From TrEMBL:
SMART domains, per the entry: RHOD (SM00450)
Species: Salinimicrobium flavum
The organism's taxonomic lineage, starting at the top: Bacteria, Pseudomonadati, Bacteroidota, Flavobacteriia, Flavobacteriales
Xref: InterPro entries: GlpE_sulfurtransferase, Rhodanese-like_dom, Rhodanese-like_dom_sf
Domain Rhodanese: 15-103
Name of this chain's protein: Rhodanese-like domain-containing protein
């Protein structure tokens, strides 16, 4: 896992043709807004989260976020242990996000 600031995340994401954005927040949080093109897999779903993560392509680069950066850091660590090569955690999470948003 690599921790990225808001600016680093935006710049790296724009240049990364192998990027996938992963939102690990709850459905209620997602309904309040999200980063465009993000796939939502709620980390609080326990085994359901594990099963969904196992379906993902490990060759992709995953940009992971939550509300503040704590749950996404946990998700990145878990994904790293499962063999994902490139996971990036958004420092400060969606609550500090200044980039494009969808509602």
């Amino acid at each position: 896992m690599k921790e990225l600031t808001q600016e680093e995340w935006k710049e790296q994401l724009e240049r990364d043709e192998n990027a996938e954005i992963l939102d690990v927040r709850t459905q209620e949080e997602v309904e309040e807004g999200y980063i465009p093109n993000a796939k939502n897999i709620d980390i609080y779903k326990g085994q359901g989260f594990v099963e969904e993560i196992q379906k993902l392509d490990k060759s992709k680069n995953y940009y992971v976020y939550c509300r503040s950066g704590a749950r996404s850091a946990q998700a990145c660590t878990f994904m790293d242990q499962m063999g994902f090569k490139n996971t990036y955690n958004l420092i400060g999470g969606f609550s500090n996000w200044t980039g494009p948003k969808s509602e």
